[in-house]
Amino acid sequence: MTGVPFVDANMRELRLTGWMSNRGRQNVASFLTKDLGLDWRLGAEWFESQLLDHDVCSNYGNWNYSAGIGNDPRENRKFNMIKQAMDYDPQGDYVRQWVPELRSVPDGRVHMPWTLTPSVRRDIDYPQPMVRAPEWQRHAPGSAVGDGNQKR
């Protein structure tokens, strides 16, 4: 578990079904290579061992692209995990399906459970995030960008 609900949901879906959406694959790849700073080959090898629809060219090509290497790389492309989660899972239904530990967390906080008050967090068996990218804060409840409850 990474402590980042959207990443954890995608990884659980992969482990349990052998499948992950393209958007999930992009987010997980970005998180591994950009947020954690790990070698893209670790992710590519894991996907190869788990994906039912694994294709060597697609898998390794996409991981190269996400890592910013190879032909036509986008070196500085980094997905904002919280923005992605809010854009593609605005109510948190996907996260709650795959991360049942967060079923009781309100919509506006399900993608950032570390923003819950300590008394509420105490009752949730879910880890703190491994890393916190500075850009995530823009999407925190009560931030200038939004209160976490905006409709999308």
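That was protein one. Protein two is written in the same sequence-then-structure order:
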Amino acid sequence: MEGRWVRVVVVSVLLGTACTSGDSTPGSATATNAARTSSGITESTPTASTSPTGQPTSQPPPPTTSTEPPGATEPLVLAVHLSRGALDISELLARRLVGGGQVSWSELDGGRGRVDVRRGASALTRVQTRPGVVAVVPGSEITPLVRAVLVDGADPLREPERYPLQTPAVEEVPAVVELTVSGDIMLGRGVAPDPGAADPAPSLRPLQRRLARADITVGNLESTLSNAGVPRQGDDSFAADPAVVARLADAGFDVLSLANNHTGDYGDAALRQTLRELRDSPIESVGAGEDARRAWRPVLVERSGVRFGFVAFNAIGETPIAGPGQPGAASVRMQPRTGPLNQGDLRRLRRTVDALTDRVDVVIVLPHWGDQYTNQPVPAQRRVGRAILRSGADLVVGGHPHWVQGVQVHDDRLVVHSLGNFIFDMDFSRQTQEGVLLDLVFWGDELRAATFAPYVIGPDFAPRPVRGERAEAILGLLAAASDPPFSGL
């Protein structure tokens, strides 16, 4: 804090000199510093001051007007359309943009045309619809509908203290919490290694460190952890070795949804054992339980003082509906598999979400829904997604289709219909071997960024990141079924 105080005082002294020296010619040191300050930037490094005789001095004069520390600051963010992809520019180029200098897109990402720099209340709205615009806005105004530009490798949303462009703020940046959400995880059947293997889940290795970096990592465990029962779905009955729980914890998973159509594949006893295995681990499970009350019970996770609440439900059937004394999944009967939409189930879901908003800062709902093998959400998904958001949820992230599906937008809040498979042995089509990780950045209770990281599942059933044309194809499948601006990914 002391270093930041010194830097702000230096800028104040320079501005006083500029106002009295009369030197405001373009390109002069005083004109440049004045332009930076008028643009809202707090200078990040000291610069030489000018003496009353007009000669530069090697040290700025000591402050004499105040001994109070400066006010709060926050990143001054350059925001671009989601179609621009990840951008990382130099501080010099960033300052040219903020200062009103003429910049072409070729200097930013190799594109054509001149950058249209915008400020003010309408700047972010323009960015969402016009890929040629760059908005210059405080970080506290950023939403997940735009993409923040990195400056010299510093992300203004993930690393606000390291980001070089700062602007005065009403209060300090709140706690930054990062979440990663994965798609469907199935560690049995063809994915499981030979009995006695040293690693019961080798398919987690390639992305294990990446997953563990997040403050909270969430997934959907699409199997039981026991085969102590009669398989209910033939060859599509999934059970994994209970030893995978420790490996999932090593990979950083904090919350696993059990609200899916395979949690009950080996009957009630196997489901109860699955619940016990997770209860005895560091991982929280949500969406299934020994009875309806426990299946509908939300999971609460706190990081850096920010409280996150998770609710999960299954709309596909096959796993029993949890009831009085009946183990199973929290369920909402709806199209296309268990519909028509059951209003009583929907009311219970909405009441659960509404009650949770009083206990936590952020509510995230994890549905298992939709049609398989398509990127298009069915109308019922959109209807129920809107109802969940109206009940107070901040985000909805679904699974089950085994393909990536589109993103729905309501009042800057998102319904991500499907992230695709994360680990699965569905090697019969390209789309079932693709997916995206959803990376989220929260400032306190506000979602600032939502980005998608494509991967491909290899012959060993392990997901690995991809770039270039393959990544563009995966994001294109998601974009084709998305609302703007995600339709531009």
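Confidence is low (pLDDT under 50) at residues 1-39, 43-68. Keep this in mind for the problem set.
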